[in-house]
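Saturday, quiet lab. Running sequence design on the structure tokens for the scaffold JK sent over.
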């Protein structure tokens, strides 16, 4: 069986709506053969190119920018979390906005264009990414992004900004925060 047929069968067996990355089909042929087959499937409208190396079967609903970013990061073995700046913006705390969407990842800073626009990855330390996408993790990353001076300026307003149970959950994550943040939450509990 030819490379093209093997790749086409793999794509055909993939359910509509599921994102397909080039890296998933590299075991079916050489890199050049895979790239050529994917290009031809896009040109013949079998696939829709979402971003470089990221596709979906034609007739599928176009996924969100978040789904595309997660698929691209996963294909390269990266972990991805919301960026502290985007979270601070959601909480109404951000003062300077960078281009959207922006995510923290486990590798270097980069960006890529997709069908949903430009997406930015910023390299962040393991402690920040360890906090996961829980409410307390997102809140800590948002405050951390503000920096020590800005955080300390608004710290007295935390009891009005956050529910008491969230403050307690955040205080339990003290090991993952900078001391200037964990000390403030310790005083609140």
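Result came back. Writing it out in full:
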């Amino acid at each position: 069986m030819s490379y093209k047929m093997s790749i086409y069968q793999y794509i055909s067996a993939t359910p509509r709506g599921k994102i397909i990355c080039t890296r998933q089909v590299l075991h079916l042929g050489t890199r050049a053969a895979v790239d050529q087959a994917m290009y031809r499937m896009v040109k013949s409208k079998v696939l829709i190119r979402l971003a470089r190396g990221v596709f979906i079967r034609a007739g599928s609903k176009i996924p969100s920018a978040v789904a595309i970013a997660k698929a691209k990061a996963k294909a390269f073995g990266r972990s991805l979390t919301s960026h502290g700046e985007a979270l601070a913006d959601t909480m109404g705390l951000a003062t300077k906005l960078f281009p959207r969407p922006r995510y923290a990842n486990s590798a270097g800073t980069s960006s890529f264009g997709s069908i949903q626009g430009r997406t930015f990855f910023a390299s962040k330390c393991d402690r920040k990414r360890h906090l996961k996408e829980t409410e307390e993790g997102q809140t800590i990353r948002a405050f951390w992004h503000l920096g020590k001076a800005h955080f300390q300026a608004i710290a007295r307003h935390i009891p009005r900004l956050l529910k008491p149970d969230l403050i307690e959950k955040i205080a339990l994550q003290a090991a993952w925060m900078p001391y200037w943040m964990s000390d403030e939450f310790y005083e609140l509990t």
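Notes for JK: The first helix runs from residue 3 to 13. Residues 136 and 189 are 15 Å apart (CA to CA). Ask whether to fix the surface positions before the next round.
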